[in-house]
Amino acid sequence: MIKLMQGDCLEVMQKLEIESVDAIITDPPYGISFMNKKWDYDVPSVQIWEECLRALKPGGYLLAFGGTRTQHRIA
């Protein structure tokens, strides 16, 4: 079953049960201020990645895209 949830990712993930997600696929902000847009000013916080880990089932996976200049920030 696929369930699509909309909202602030941190707020939505905090509502998820522990180890309830099979996979997370995301293209987070790269932190390069693309076209001077505020949403791309920084990369996701450590708290967001911790929530991803909390929500993932054992053996689940996270695929996060990153920019070539800032890939070290999501490593």
Question: How is this fold's topology laid out?
Answer:
Blueprint: H1 9-14, E1 21-26, H2 46-55, E2 56-64
Parallel strand pairs: 1-2
Which spans have pLDDT < 50 for at least 5 consecutive residues? none
Residue share in β-strands: 15-25%
Class by helix and strand content? Answer: alpha+beta
> Portion of residues in helices?
10-25%
Task: Indicate the mean pLDDT.
Answer: 88
Strand order of the largest sheet: 1-2
Tell me the radius of gyration.
13 Å
Describe the structure in your own words:
The protein has a two-stranded parallel sheet. By secondary structure, it is α+β, with helices and mostly antiparallel strands. It starts with 8 loop residues before the first helix and ends in an 11-residue tail after the last strand. The protein is globular. β1, α2 (46-55) and β2 form a beta-alpha-beta unit. It has helices at residues 9-14, 46-55, and strands at 21-26, 56-64.
